[in-house]
Amino acid sequence: MEVNMRAFLSKPTFNVQSPDPDPDPVLPLLPPPLDLRQTYAVRPPPLDVVWEGGPLVGTTGCLVSPGGVGKSWWSLLACHSVACGAAGDILGLGVPVPGPALYVAAEDPVSVIKQRVWQIGQRLCEAAREEAARNLRVIPALGAGIDVEDLGYWAEIQTLARGCRLVILDTLSRIHQRDEASPGEMRAVVARIEALAAQSGAAVLYVHHVAKAAIRDGRLDDATAVRGATVLVDHARWVAALIRMDAADADVRGLTRDQARDWLRLVITKGNYGAATNDDIWYRRDTGGVLVRDEPPEAEARPGAAQPTKERQGRGRSVLASTIVEQVQW
C-alpha cells in the first residue's frame, strides 16, 4: 500500500501536548556572562592570595606528604598564621590580610589536637591568642564519618566556612566514601570542594598522602606524587609537598640522621596563578613538635661529597616573609 508521506508527517503521530506558551521561568545554572565593556574599562584588583606564594582565595589546593611527616602540624599552624597575621605567623608565610580560618581535623583524636594547640599557644602573645580565638575554628572530627557528598555534613561545612579566607580539610581520605583510584569518582569529590571554595570565597586546601611508588622512586617533590587519581592535582590550583630531609642531604650538611628528621621542606610543585617558586621553604621541628621557619646548615665543601640540588638548598625566604618573622618576638 502506497503511503502519502507528506500527509503522514503533517499529522501528529503521538499525543504530545504543545508547550505552555508562557512557562514558569527556569533559574539559570550558570553565572551571567562578563560585561566585557565594563571589564575592559575598569582595572580589576590584584589577585588575592592567602599568603605570599600561596593559594588564591576562592580556589582549591592540595598539601601532600608521606604519613607521619608533619602535614597536620603544618595545617594547624597555617590556620593560625591566617587567623592571627604577623603576630601568630610561626610558619613565616607572610600573610598580607589576616582573617577567619577553619581547620577540620578528621584524622587525629581530640587529645592530640589539644596538645598541639597548647604547644602553639605557648609561642603566641596574649593578643595573638585572642585573635586566634576570634578568627580560628578548629573542628576535631575524627570518627564523625564526614562525607562531603552528604547534604547534612555539607550544609554544616558550608556554614562554618562562610566568610573564611582559609579552610583546610585534613585529610582527604577521611571526608569522602569514593574510590581514590577512580578519576570519575574523585572528580565528583573535588567538584564538591571547588563549590565550597567558590561559595565561601575561601582558599580550600585538602591534605592528602603521596603514592607508595613516589616514596620508592624518590619523587616526593613531583606534583604527580599524589596517591590516587591525578585529577586530585590536575584540578587543584595550588599544590605543595612537605618532605623530610633525606640522608644524602643531611650528610652533605653535616647532620646526623636523627637531626635530619627534624628538618622539613615545603616544595610548591604547582601554582596556576604565578604562585610556584623555585625556593624551598625549610622548617625545623622544635620543642613540642611545633614547626618553625628556619634554614638548615649550609652544605659542607668536602672533597668527593655530593652537593644538595638547587631545590634542596632552599635559596632563602622571601624578603617579605623575612621581615615579618624578624619583627615578631616569640
What's this model, at a glance?
The protein is α/β, with parallel strands linked by helices and 330 residues long.
What does this protein look like?
This protein is of the alpha/beta class. Mean pLDDT is 84; it is low at 8-14 and 310-330. It has helices at 5-10, 36-41, 71-84, 110-121, 126-135, 151-161, 183-200, 212-217, 231-234, 247-252, 257-260, 310-313, 319-327, and strands spanning 60-65, 101-105, 136-140, 166-170, 203-209, 238-244, 263-271, 281-285, 291-293. It has a nine-stranded mixed β-sheet with strand order 3-2-4-5-1-6-7-8-9, sandwiched between helices. Strand 8 (281-285) and strand 9 (291-293) form a beta hairpin. 33% of the residues lie in helices and 16% in strands. The chain has 13 helices and nine strands. It has one domain (56-327): P-loop containing nucleotide triphosphate hydrolases (Rossmann fold).
